[in-house]
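Progress against Task 2.4 (sequence-to-structure conversion) is shown through the following example record, which the project officer requested during the mid-term review.
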Amino acid sequence: MNEPNDAAARRVRTVRTTPHLRQLRRGRAVRLLVRAGAAQTRTPAGPLIVFGEVDTCLLPAATPLSRGDLEELLELVPGRPMLWRERPMSLAVSPTTAEGVDCRLAAPSHTDVRAIGTVATHAVVVGGRVLQSSARTRVVRAAGDQRRTWSHYLSQVGVSEVITKVTPEIGARLAEGFLAAGPPPSGALDLASIANRLLGRIRMDHRLDQNTPVQSGTTRLRWAARIGDPAQPVVWFRLQNDTVRTALITVRTEAELADVQRFCEDLAVHDWLLSVTAAALEQSDLFAPGSAESVAVLAPVLHHLAHLWVPGAHTPPALRGLWTQLNTDPDFTAGRRALIDQLHNRVLVATLDAVRHTRIGTEDYSAD
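C-alpha cells generated for the chain above:
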C-alpha cells in the first residue's frame, strides 16, 4: 500500500517541478522584482529641480507707495497680511497664491515628461517703487504613475509631480529645456504667462494712478535651480535678449534650494535697474548734450531709482556669496558704477551750461 502512495507522491512532485513550470515561476519572480524596483525608484527622494520666473517693472504710481498702501494693494488673499521688511530698503511680499498645472516639461532626449501640480505665485514691491511678479514650482518624482485628485496637488502649493518615468540625468535635461531660448513648446510649462497675469492684475489696480516718473519696460528672469555638490552655491547668468534673462543656480542643500527664489528676485531687481539706467542714457543721446530734453530723461532716474541699488541686502545669508560671483563676471557693481557716473556727468554738464548761460545773460543785461 505504501509503495503506490510513494510513487504517486513522486509523480506529483515531478509534475510540479517540470522545466516549463520552473520557467514560469522564474518569469513571475522577475516581474515581481521589476515591479518592486520600479516602485522604489518612483518613491520621492528630493526635488529634481525648481523652476521660476520673475517679471520686474516700475510700479505705475507717481510717488512711492507707503506700507499702508502696499498692504491694500498686495492683499491677494483676504485676511492674510503681506510680509514686510523696512531696512536697508523696504521690501513688501504678498501672500502666496496657487495655480494648477497639468503639462509637459521640456527636456531634450525625453519625449514625454508629464507633470501635475501647482505653481506658487506672489508679488513683491521694492522701495515702494519696483513691482515684481514671481512664480515658481518645485519638480519632484511622483510616488506612482497614476494621476491623483486635485485635492492632493492643492495640498502641496508650489509642487509639481512627474508621473512619467524619469532617468538619473533628468534634472540636467529639464534645466536645459526650461532655460532654452524662445517661448516654451506647445503644451509645456509656461511660467511666463502665469507671472505676467499676476503682474497685469496688480498694475491695473484702481488704487494706482498710472503715472510713472521714469519711462521703462519690463524684464523677465527665467531661472532653474538644482542640488549638486559644488563647494559653494554657483550661479550662471545670461542675457537672452533686451528683456529676457536666464539663470541656473546650483546649491548644496534643500535649505539653500528654498532660498533661491528670494535671491532671484533680488537679482532681477538689480538687473532691471541696470537696464533702465542704460536705456535712459540711450534715450538721452537722441537730444543735444546738456539740453533740457536730455536732462528731463536722465534726472528722474537719479531721483527715483538710483538709491534702490542694494545688491544682496534682501538675499538670504547662505546665498549672498552668489553676489561675489556676479560682481566678478559680469561685474554688476562696476557696470552700475559706470552707468551712474555717466548720468551724473551728463546732468552736471547740463547744469553748468545752464548756469553759464544764465550768468552771461545777466552780465549782458547789466551792461545795457
